[in-house]
Specification:
This protein is α+β, with helices and mostly antiparallel strands. The protein is built from 31 helices and 23 strands. The radius of gyration is 39 Å and the shape is flat. About 0% of the residues have low confidence.
């Protein structure tokens, strides 16, 4: 019988996990959250870039995004039967199918909207007497025989156009249809006929058999050529004065294309292929640009001509759409990289702090193992296995949650990020723990930052980091956040380096106030102040690592909050500059005036606080520039320099205002103070009686833009306007005027004008949008209302902008969360010492209240240091980096008519103050909880024989 005399040993990993399940669970949760954030970030970037590219293509005008292959009519040298066959549907469909197969990846077609056919490229004159003639000019019509009419329209009246007999070049009767909009504007009815002349001036009768309604009016089938759907009133370029005529399109039967070959309208064959963005990703943009360039003038065009003919040409505006998307992505990426590096650095430091906390808690255990012969390799291997069992599953779960939360994006960047988090914890924790036991450690050695002296190596490292930070900030201020070769990580890491230097400097300076405060405290009778300062100076919670984590988190949160605040402020300013006030009522045309009844109705609506009527007259001719006026002078009446010369300012907008009401509007909307007293209508500029004509001898005071003031000079100048003829004398300058985008303007008192009816009404307050629109619509179709809130909503509809904004919101939240976690970890690291200290002091007569004050006073210096340093670091980072960061791509890009002037960073007090206040509050709360918990435990529990804590 065999006996096993070996002692039974429990597995190390299982024993450790059972011994400290709370620490293992907390570490797993921290790794899970960090791995989730690390894996979700690249997937979120891929997601918003993909959605942005698809959105830009899907929402672009079909005339720009559609892929069009066109070629002239078959050559006249070909037999007539062959020419007719080439423009019939079977042959056109065969060529279209070949073109679809020839499209290179990643370009894909929306086959449901592909259209092909024959069209006239030169409109034909329509002399039918029943057609409308606005200026006695007959309309010009285009004709198209396009496939898929029945699939993309519904029959409103009549019948579908057909080809009862085979249509050839010799046919003289065909059937056609028009849309409802074309029928309404051109007075077309079912059964009407239109004559189309051949090249030999023989009439071709086109009978309108039906009126159709587009199923998707904004789809590519109808919007690639807007005249298919909607007629247009266009000016005649050959007329000596403005003359307008109608132009529209008649939809022929699908197989009626051969009849156009006999006309002089220069018919052409076309294939319109709308792109399908559903399968595109953000990373396909570069490849898509190359493919489009090849199709336009490269090897791709040769393949197209092999299918469609040697004279075929490829045209599309899709390349410009993709290029604009790429420019926006390249502009946004460096700003996002700043947030990514900031949060990544904070997360890495917090993970290292967690490792330091675990190492401190297990220092005695590992020192005992080392003293009993344990090797560093064996101890490190056990710690690695113990850590990997907890960390690796947490990293994998974080990656899985990121994939589920952000469903669209490449998987490998997120997998690498999650693996990096797990590897950092698995390597850093055993390495930091084992390196502490290379040499024997003196038991109970003090870690006193007051008496510590930094080594030369540390000084050299800090100076190196200082040089890197200065170089990064200087580069960012000079050339912005982007470079020619893409995102510069050193420049994007400038906020991190600034926070790093601030942490190192504060750690160096931190002992000085403690030394100064300890001496007077030692002379006081009470021991609480002296003990708290002594403990604060001796504690490792105020070291470089915890302070670095706090400053990084607070600086990143402040930077992200400033980005969000800057985006919001830029959009608010752009909406205000476009509308001019909280709401604007104006005519559709520039010269449309508002009736008094409409003004009174709108002014009396609930929520309207103020109304300022304006009479705006655009393009008022200015007299010749005054000799010697270069615009470089200073307006002595206003004290403002008239920066900028008169240049080529030949015309300006004249704005007639009620000075008192306009001054009130300027105050309410944040415009510069308006000098209403300078426009007082008195003396020669007094109000004119009704029906009285103004004369050139009247001189009106005017507030002008700097360029206009430089052109007019200081002497009165005559103006001929629709509001009357008079002279103006510049009495002041203003940088801008409400509701006008032009920088060349004159502001006069409307009461002194011959014609005073306002063209615009600016409102302040919060009127109900529905009631305002209803009131304006009740006045007639020639009036329109614009609200600042509606204009503001236009700036948040781009997926790329919205996605980047969400990332910065997450950066602010994560920065604040990691800052609070860093405070908690730094206080937990010294929690056992605090409990032991309170137990010892209670044996000497320390009361519970005194114990709470002691811990609170001990935590106060570190908390104030972190909060004050975070406030200063965040503010300094924003001030230093604001000249190199332009938020236009995030705030205003992609919105037609928006102001594209630079949008710098703006300090957001909430993002600066709230996380810093949270640090102080959390430190006080943790100290209070520790004191309360220690008071519930007896001194015997904390003090044991042989315990040297």
């Amino acid at each position: 019988m065999r006996h096993n005399n070996r002692a039974a040993t429990a597995p190390w990993i299982r024993t450790r996990l059972r011994t400290a399940p709370g620490a293992a669970t907390a570490l797993a949760v921290l790794v899970l959250v960090t791995a989730f954030l690390a894996a979700a970030f690249p997937r979120a970037v891929d997601a918003y870039e993909t959605k942005g590219l698809r959105h830009d293509i899907r929402t672009a005008d079909a005339g720009r995004s559609v892929l069009e292959v066109a070629r002239p009519q078959p050559g006249l040298e070909l037999p007539q039967a062959q020419r007719d066959a080439e423009v019939r549907s079977p042959e056109l469909g065969r060529v279209g199918a070949g073109l679809l197969k020839a499209l290179p990846a990643p370009l894909r077609a929306d086959t449901s909207s592909v259209a092909y056919g024959v069209r006239t490229t030169k409109p034909a004159l329509a002399d039918e007497p029943w057609l409308p003639r606005p200026d006695a000019v007959p309309p010009k019509l285009s004709y198209v025989a396009q496939s898929g009419l029945k699939d993309h329209a519904t029959l409103a009246s009549g019948a579908w156009p057909t080809t009862p007999r085979e249509v050839t070049s010799d046919s003289r009767e065909v059937q056609g249809a028009v849309t409802e909009e074309t029928a309404a504007e051109l007075k077309v009815k079912v059964g009407a006929t239109v004559e189309l002349l051949t090249a030999a001036q023989e009439p071709i009768t086109v009978t309108i058999t039906g009126i159709v309604t587009p199923r998707d009016p904004r789809g590519s089938y109808w919007s690639s050529d807007p005249l298919l759907r909607t007629p247009s009133l266009v000016p005649d370029p050959e007329a000596p004065f403005p003359v307008y005529y109608w132009t529209g399109t008649v939809l022929l039967a699908e197989d009626a294309g051969p009849v156009l070959l006999s006309t002089a309208t220069e018919p052409a064959l076309f294939w319109r292929i709308p792109p399908d963005p559903a399968g595109l990703t953000g990373r396909d943009g570069a490849r898509l640009t190359e493919v489009i360039a090849s199709l336009e003038s490269g090897p791709g065009l040769l393949k197209v001509r092999e299918t469609a003919g040697e004279t075929a040409a490829f045209a599309t505006g899709l390349g410009h759409i993709v290029g604009a998307n790429a420019r926006m992505r390249d502009a946004i990426s460096p700003v996002i990289a700043v947030a990514a590096l900031g949060i990544g650095s904070v997360a890495a430091v917090v993970l290292l702090m967690t490792g330091a906390l675990i190492a401190a808690r297990r220092r005695a255990e590992l020192a005992l193992m080392r003293s009993r012969g344990g090797s560093l390799r064996g101890i490190g291997g056990r710690l690695l296995a113990e850590t990997a069992v907890t960390v690796l599953p947490a990293s994998a779960l974080g990656l899985l949650l990121a994939v589920l939360a952000v469903g669209e994006g490449r998987w490998w960047p997120g997998a690498l990020a999650a693996a990096g988090v797990g590897l950092l914890v698995c390597v850093a924790l055993p390495l930091r723990t084992t390196l502490q036991h290379i040499r024997p450690m003196l038991h109970g050695a003090r870690e006193d930052v007051v008496s510590a002296r930094p080594s030369r190596r540390r000084t050299v490292a800090e100076l190196t980091l200082l040089v890197l930070a200065i170089g990064a900030v200087t580069a960012l201020r000079r050339r912005g956040t982007s470079s020619d070769s893409g995102t510069d990580l050193l420049v994007s890491a400038a906020p991190v380096l600034v926070a790093l230097i601030a942490a190192l400097v504060l750690v160096r300076l931190y002992p000085l106030p403690l030394r100064l405060a300890t001496r007077p405290m030692a002379r006081l009778r009470g021991a609480i102040g002296f003990l708290s300062l002594a403990r604060a100076g001796r504690s490792s919670a105020g070291g470089a690592l915890p302070l670095l984590a706090l400053l990084l988190a607070l600086a990143t949160a402040a930077f992200g909050g400033s980005v969000i605040a800057g985006i919001g402020d830029a959009r608010d300013d752009a909406a205000l500059a476009t509308v001019g006030a909280d709401a604007r009522v104006s005519g559709v045309g520039e010269r449309t005036t508002l009736p008094d009844e409409l003004v009174r109705t709108v002014r009396d609506l609930n929520g309207v606080r103020g109304a300022a009527p304006l009479r705006i007259e655009h393009s008022v001719a200015l007299p010749e520039a005054v000799a010697g006026a270069d615009g470089a002078g200073t307006d002595t009446r206003t004290g403002a320099g008239t920066a900028g010369g008169s240049g080529d300012v030949a015309a300006a907008a004249m704005v007639g205002v009620d000075p008192a009401r306009y001054a009130e509007l300027a105050r309410a909307t944040g415009l510069p103070a308006f000098p209403a007293a300078r426009l007082t209508a008195a003396g020669p500029s007094a109000p004119l009686p009704e029906g009285t004509e103004s004369g050139q001898d009247r001189v009106l005071p005017a507030i002008a833009s700097p360029a206009v003031a430089a052109r007019l000079g200081e002497e009165p100048q005559a103006l001929d306007t629709l509001s009357g003829n008079f002279k103006v004398q510049v009495v002041g300058t203003a940088p801008r005027v409400a509701s006008l985008s032009t920088t060349n303007f004159l502001i006069v008192n409307s009461a002194a004008l011959e014609q005073r009816a306002p063209t615009t009404l600016l409102l302040t307050g919060a009127p109900d949008p529905g009631k305002l629109h209803a009131a304006v619509e009740g006045g007639g179709k020639e009036y329109a209302a614009h609200l600042r809130s509606e204009e503001r909503a236009r700036y948040v509809n781009t997926p790329m902008q919205a996605g980047a904004e969400r990332i910065y919101l997450a950066a602010v939240a994560a920065g604040a969360g990691y800052a609070l976690l860093a405070v908690l970890l730094s206080l937990l690291q010294t929690a056992p010492e605090r409990k032991t200290l309170l137990a010892r002091l209670r044996t000497m007569g320390l009361t519970t209240g005194q114990g709470r004050r002691l811990l609170a006073f001990e935590a106060t210096p570190q908390a104030l240091l972190a909060a004050g340093g975070g406030l200063f670091t965040g503010w300094a980072t924003i001030v230093l980096l604001s000249p190199g960061v332009d938020l236009v791509p995030l705030a205003l890009a992609g919105v037609a008519g928006s102001d594209t002037s630079p949008v710098p960073l703006r300090t957001d007090l909430w993002s600066l103050g709230l996380p810093a206040a949270g640090v102080v509050a959390l430190a006080a709360a943790v100290a209070g909880v520790q004191a309360w918990w220690a008071s519930r435990r007896g001194s015997i529990t904390e003090l044991r024989a042989g315990d040297s804590r």
